[in-house]
Amino acid sequence: MILRPEEKSAAVDRGAQADRRAGHTVEKIGGTSMSRARELVETILIGKRSAAALYQRVFVVSAFGGITDKLLEHKKSGEPGVYAMFAHADNEHGWMDALSDVSRAMRDINAGMFDDAGDRQAADDFVRERIEGARGCLIDLQRLCSYGHFQLGEHMQTIREMLSALGEAHSANNLALLLRRYGINARLVDLTGWRDETQPDLEERIRGAFAEVDFSRELPIVTGYAQCREGLMREFDRGYSEVTFATIAALTGAREAIIHKEFHLSSADPRLVGAEKVRKIGRTNYDVADQLSNMGMEAIHPKAAKKLRQAGVPLRVANAFEPHDPGTLIDAEPAGAPGVQMVTGLPVTSLELFEQDMVGVKGYDAAILDMLTRHRVRIISKVSNANSIVHHVEAPLKAIRRVERDLAALYPAARITTRRAGMVSVIGRDLKGLSIMLRSLTALSQAGIEPISAQETGRGVDVQFIVAIEEREKAVKALHHCFVETAESQLAEAA
Predict the structure, then answer these.
(1) Distance (Å, rounded) from C-alpha 317 to C-alpha 28?
(2) What are the pLDDT digits (tens) for 388-402?
(3) pLDDT confidence of 205, banded at 50, 70, 90?
């Protein structure tokens, strides 16, 4: 079932790849959806399927909602979890209590998921074995690092990966148990490397795990985390599950990769503009997916999208609780009819370096990029003129302050300023010939919004506007009304 490296040659055209691909799909379930696992049985996992239709699918699962926050740190608030407490522990009590809290939370999930006492006991035993194994490992490591020859900091990335893996192992094991109760031949595929003494790379890990899997009569339930030599979290941090998912789809030559979410990929955030006003995108390409990712509206991690695109595997984003809706297909095909597909925005920090003597001098931009890279500051967009360079970035305030300090030391005559702002983007497969910039400025003006700046690259994929931070949501609504709601009304009137 696994394609050999030579079969993935970039010289192979898409037609040959399509002929070689098996009939199976690789599908990913996120943490929030996993928390509704029993509902998923009635929709995407079983639903109205029977016999052979139950198979030829692979499910890659994330940890149940909230578990990874407890294991690492809260994704939004930054509240410390086991990892953060262990990293700054003066004693064992904080992180050990936090780990016990994770164990209780996992067993609470088990209690709500399994009616059968035997299944519940098996799930609790699995949690106990993994949690206590991790606890013992951390205690031993803490003791070892009390000696001067061993530095705890050298092992923190490995600890982060080990703790994160606990969440995915728990959810995958639970889902496999639940499906077996329904008579499905579900197979747990544990990629977490638990008690594995080898150090394979990611592709070797996946090849070994799938070597004997029969897609025609087994339903693999796979952990979203995969332990490997390169360390997924080192590069992707908490985006690792999508990379695992995409790599499995590419290596196994999947017919299609599917991400199941709690909502459709829509023309805007329904919580902002209203569920009745948004429209499902339906069909787009990887170019648009990359723009969405850049704006924090990830359909899929850009590195995962790259793997799928290069392997010729189309991606579908579907609503997990509307199994009969095909969702949105993302592939490498060129655009159809020109049009706006999404309006979205995110808060940014505008970092401006102004120096009168910059004009004609090389090196300023390279130095700023080096600073931003070193402090792990994500660049959303940038613009420059003769004597100023502005980067619109997304990063914690403390990282921005460090960049400011280093730039001030490097360019003492420069004036460096930062301010919070809102970036709003109009995105589509083909925006050429639609006068998007002019129409956008008119719509913003009618809404009483004066943009700080506006730009488009000429590729016809997106147009970006910087507005005051307090006007970001208002700007999204105004542009969505202009390009989606009004267009929809005009089509209805024409019909």
Answers:
(1) 10
(2) 999 999 988 899 999
(3) very high
Q: What tens digit of pLDDT does each residue of 89-134 get?
A: 755 678 999 999 999 999 999 999 999 999 999 999 999 999 999 9
| DSSP calls for 194-245 | TT------HHHHHHHHHTT--TTT-EEEEES----TT-HHHHHGGGHHHHHH
Per-residue pLDDT at 494 = 41
Residue 247, both tokens: 């790599």
| 353-371: pLDDT as tens digits | 999 888 878 888 888 999 9
Domain 342-494: give its CATH superfamily. VC0802-like (3.30.2130.10)
So what's the pLDDT on residue 294? 83
Q: Can you identify the CATH homologous superfamily of domain 5-262?
A: Acetylglutamate kinase-like (3.40.1160.10)
Report helix angle 364-374 to 397-410, nearest 10.
Answer: 140
- The encoded tokens of residue 408 equal 């001030």
* Contact residues for 162 (Cβ-Cβ < 8 A; gap 6+): 134, 137
- Pull the structure tokens for residue 15: 């037609």
Q: Which residues contact 212 (CB under 8 A, 6 or more apart)?
A: none
Q: What share of the chain is helix, strand, coil (3-state, %, to 5)?
A: 45, 20, 35
The single-letter DSSP state of residue 355 is: -
- What is the per-residue DSSP string for 33-67? HHTTHHHHIIIIISTT--GGGG-SEEEEEPPPTTH
Q: Is 452 exposed, middle or buried (0-12, 13-18, 19+ CB in 10 A)?
A: middle
| pLDDT number for residue 3 | 52
- Report domain extents, the chain: 5-262, 342-494
CA distance 346 to 344: 7
SS3 readout for 70-92: HHCECCCCCCECHHHHHHCCCCC
CB-CB neighbours of 420 under 10 Å: 13
Joined together, the tokens standing for residue 463 give 């147009």
The per-residue pLDDT for 377 is 92
Model pTM score: 0.84
